Design the sequence.
């Protein structure tokens, strides 16, 4: 009889949080695009954003798609970062203007979604690290450093390449 294990639980938690974030961010982005098409006076006019902020809706839809598709770990990292910045920026904008909504809804909702976003990011499957072209080109050039130094250099390089 098959039992429940930690991997299954983590996988279910990952997909639950990821689908929730993709739904809320993607549908919000779609609504921003539709609002712009229906009324070209700007997105969220009460916050005073200029009309070109409509691009945020477009990026939200793409970010929602990016966190759902398999592979492309670097793209997912950028999408998660963009979603995080969008949600925390929404809170900062609402606080700056003073439009909190009933029971501070416009502050609490983005903060809750931020928490779900961080959970989805933390639960995501890890990509298998690959050797970058820069690491292959520089292999053997830093023999004068200790093994510890080489390890830290490789870690830093692999993060950016």
Sequence:
């Amino acid at each position: 009889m098959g039992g429940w294990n930690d991997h299954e639980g983590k996988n279910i938690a990952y997909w639950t949080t990821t689908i929730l974030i993709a739904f809320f961010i993607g549908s919000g982005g779609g609504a921003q695009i539709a609002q712009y098409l229906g009324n070209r006076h700007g997105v969220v006019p009460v916050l005073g954003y200029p009309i070109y902020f409509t691009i945020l809706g477009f990026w939200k839809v793409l970010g929602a798609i990016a966190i759902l598709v398999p592979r492309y770990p670097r793209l997912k990292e950028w999408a998660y970062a963009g979603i995080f910045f969008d949600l925390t920026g929404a809170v900062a904008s609402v606080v700056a203007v003073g439009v909190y909504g009933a029971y501070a809804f416009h502050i609490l909702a983005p903060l809750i979604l931020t928490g779900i976003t961080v959970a989805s990011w933390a639960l995501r499957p890890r990509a298998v690290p690959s050797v970058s072209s820069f690491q292959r080109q520089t292999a053997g050039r830093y023999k004068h450093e200790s093994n510890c130094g080489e390890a830290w250099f490789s870690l830093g390089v692999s993060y950016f390449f």
